[in-house]
Amino acid sequence: MGLVNGRPYIDKGRMEPLTFAFLKGATPAEHETVLYDDRYELIPYDEPADIVAINTEIYTARRAYEIAGEFRKRGILVIMGGCHTTMIPKESLEHCDTVVIGDAEPVWQEILDDVQSKHLKRIYRGSLGKSKGLGPSEKIWTTDYSIFEGKSYLPVRLAQFSRGCQNHCEYCATGAIYKRKSYHQPVHELIKELETCGRKLIFFVDDNIVADKKAAKELFTALIPLKIRWFSQGDISFAEDPLFMQLMIKSGCVGMVVGFESINYTNLKQMKKNCNLTYENYDQLIEKTRNAGIFIWAAFLLGYDKETPESIKKTLDWALSKKFAFAAFNISMPYPGTEYYTRMAKEKRLLFNGNWWLHDDYSFGASAIQPTLCSPEELSNACLEARMSHSSIRAILSRSLDRKTHMKDIRNFITYFLYNPLFRDEMKKKHGMLLGYRGSA
Length: 441
Ligand code: SF4
Description:
The strands form four sheets. Strands 7-10-11-12-13-14 form a six-stranded parallel sheet. The protein has a four-stranded parallel sheet with strand order 3-4-5-6, with helices on both faces. It has a three-stranded antiparallel sheet with strand order 2-1-15, with no helix packed on it. Helix content is about 35%, strand content about 15%. It is an alpha/beta fold. Helix 13 packs parallel to helix 15. The N and C termini lie close together (about 10 Å). It has two domains: about 15-125, Rossmann fold; about 155-435, tm_1862 like domain (pyruvate-formate lyase- activating enzyme, Alpha-Beta Horseshoe). Bound molecules: iron/sulfur cluster. Iron/sulfur cluster (SF4) binds next to helix 6.
């Protein structure tokens, strides 16, 4: 993302950038490929290359444009894709030769052919959903993990079953991109990839792995013989059905990232977080999840209109009382292309000229909107305080004595005690960092 105190930020908690395993899987073997990961290694700009592909997220966009600029100065074609480029392709087009809007796999071969015939177009539109003509059991993408050989990441393999989500929360980029649709890889194809993926700990990066319960059941059943341990992301509805949860456990589920977002009903309603609105409170579902022995990584979105420093403290206390294994206290950020961004613009509440991700003065952790009941600084400070408090040594120790989850077995115990401090240190290091390298790379 950028600089910490004038020096490159090295992300110790980095996981494999799965996008590049998909691109590698879509690239015919005749082409030589190499991956450089700006999160921890220097990019050899002068190494000969025909094309450079860069994936963008909003926080990395500024840095991605700098990298693109270096390659273009050397006459190398740069292709950009990813979530941010898909949301605002016009901006990315100012910094690269070609953009891919949507999923890249269906158009990747065409791009490579066009590069060879020197007819590369400015814009390619990948599908946002299953490619036309594919039958229900045909493979949608191939994951080729060989691109990560020799690289250094946390010892967990990333994989993906589905893309998209049937919900449409106001602030969510996934919701805006996939427009309430989700689709998934045929189960038998994913199982084949997992059998040879070389690891037994898997993180399914799906936006909401339990959105389509029927498909999820099929997947979980097929995972049982693999004897893997996995975690993923999804809404809390999985805890409603005891049989469904039993199947999750049987298939090796260790934990789920769950977006509670807010404990205030008005905020949830404003977010259009409909999948959470049906619950009067989450108490029973959380208890059932704990009893089943599933770790919860709780995610909160702080900064909607009823938020104050006091309500954030209340949210922190609630999270501590629920003994979540991990918790992320995120500031609600307006992503361009989302309904939230449009609303904030209409209400004239966008800070940093409405493009905080490129703004010289924006630093990680700062609010990019004007909250209604407190100042942007109060919001930012309260979020930092919540992050630090939840992962303080005292808090980690005080919720560690839980035989149902954190102390269930030695592997859970190690995960809990290793990841909490790592997460805290990374958040602390990142808070206040400037995005981009400001020409000092
Ligand atoms: S449930 Fe999650 S993935 Fe789905 S739209 Fe809402 S925030 Fe996005």
